[in-house]
Amino acid sequence: MKREIPLSRAHRIVNHGPVVLVTTQGKSGRPNVLAVAWITPVSQSPPLVAISVADGHYSHRLISEGGEFVVNVPSYTMASQVMVCGKISGRDVDKFEKAQLTPVPAKEVSPPLIEECIGHLECRLDQEVKVGDHTLFIGRVLKAWAEKDLFEETWRVDVKCGEALHHLGGNVFAVSREMVVVEE
What we know:
By secondary structure, the protein is mainly β. The protein has helices at residues 58-66, 79-87, 95-98, 159-162; strands at 20-25, 31-36, 39-43, 48-54, 68-73, 103-104, 113-114, 119-131, 134-146, 165-169, 172-175.
């Protein structure tokens, strides 16, 4: 038996991929951090990733202004830091300081990496697509970094090693700890 889900919560049926911390930097030069649960790869060649950011968010302006962003993948141990970055605005607060995160210079873009995260994608803005009350920022991945033990030899994420954080809504998260292999 199925039950109807309110349309305002329909996204939660498919939105349990890893939550990420997106770093931005506008013309002011001060970097900011935004928690983003709506993220997806959209192309392998060229490598493109899309993030969906609400129009009124401070980071929305910074991404448009700066034309660059970094996708940082936190581990489950960073759940409280993710909540800080998702609950407060960086307009008046230094979220790096408030969430006790360490900015590290990126190689190809101005926004920094977050040292505590397990993976990073340095992105240059390729397209902005207005979608409802959000903008889909599509970034070309220029550099990719990950903890050395995060990937298996097949370049597949080892879920037992990375234990990425998956947002289920509000202050509820899940962690993947097991792989399921289907015999062909």
